[in-house]
Amino acid sequence: MKMTKIVPFAMTALLLGSAMGVPTASASEGEAVVTNAENNEQQVQPVFIKVTGEIQNVDVRENATYYTVVEGDQTNMVVVDKDSFVFDNTGKEAKLQKGDKVSAYSYAKKPMLMIYPPQYNPEMVIVETEEMGSVEVDFFNKNLVDTDNYLKLNVGEDTKIESASGKELKASDLAEQHLVVFYTIATMSIPAQTPPSKVIVLDNIEKEEPVEVDPVPTPEPAPSDSAIQEIIQNDFYEVEGTKMVPLRLVVEELGFKVEVTPKGAIISKGAVSYTITRGQKEYGYNKAIRQFDVAPALLENGKTYVSVKFVEELMK
Fold first, then answer.
1. Range(s) for CATH 3.30.457.10 in the chain?
2. Per-residue buried b or exposed e for 195-226, using 16+ beta carbons within 10 Å of the residue's own CB
3. Tens digit of pLDDT for each residue in 225-249?
4. Does this model's pTM top 0.90?
5. Cβ-contact 6, 107 below 8 angstroms
6. pLDDT tens column, 262-315
7. Which fold has domain 1-131?
8. Does domain 223-315 have CATH number 3.40.50.1820?
């Protein structure tokens, strides 16, 4: 059986539709919970993003065909290549054409692409016909129930089972898989139960294994930061309510070159240069003029002190 599969895709429409709050997901496949960061609400994250509408434009390119799908004021781009799965709602293989009403199902955990109109490369495209037939694309658990507790499968001898990879599968292989389910009748129970006419296993989707992540340790201060904090704690003066610390000791620890001048110093590192004058609040920063709260001063023999705020600026 020839099947059509789709190029790597992006969840742009989902992002655009939830721009007011970025959701974060947790838990395993089929049990994912989304927490809305804005209002802390929780909801089930869909396993597949469904895009519906009518094909209004067809753009055939070298490696894929781009279908413009419109529903109301929403426009999406569905990208289909030679590997895309395309069926009608009864389970028959189909070809897409302008005017078709379609439903495209894209795996929600694929990488995101920010583009407009939103562009999807779905695992499955269903052409909706007037013939009787329903389709459910979802993850089904070990009891063959989907993630919304909407549909339970009662697979019988008449159920045709296929796989995206072409493997031969049996009913026992359907548990905990991503499935495309074709059916015509279902009970009125919760979940509804159906004897599907056909099931396709999307075993080409890479399953994410749970990963245990060690807590991120609090980073230790860089050696220079520790040394500077020690200098600040052990060698300082209070002048007009401002803590003053030794200029040369600190800036050399930060990797600056110090050039002593008759009334102060010029410190530099790379393209950055400061010109400091004792007793003067103004100091040069490259070609600009800035100002200290308290003027640098020779508070000990041979040691010029500057405000700790200046040191904090150098450390940024």
1. 223-315
2. ebbbbbbbbbbeeeeeeeeeeeeeeeeeeeee
3. 788 888 888 999 999 889 999 999 9
4. no
5. no
6. 889 999 998 889 999 999 999 999 878 889 989 999 988 889 999 999 988 888
7. OB fold (Dihydrolipoamide Acetyltransferase, E2P) (2.40.50)
8. no
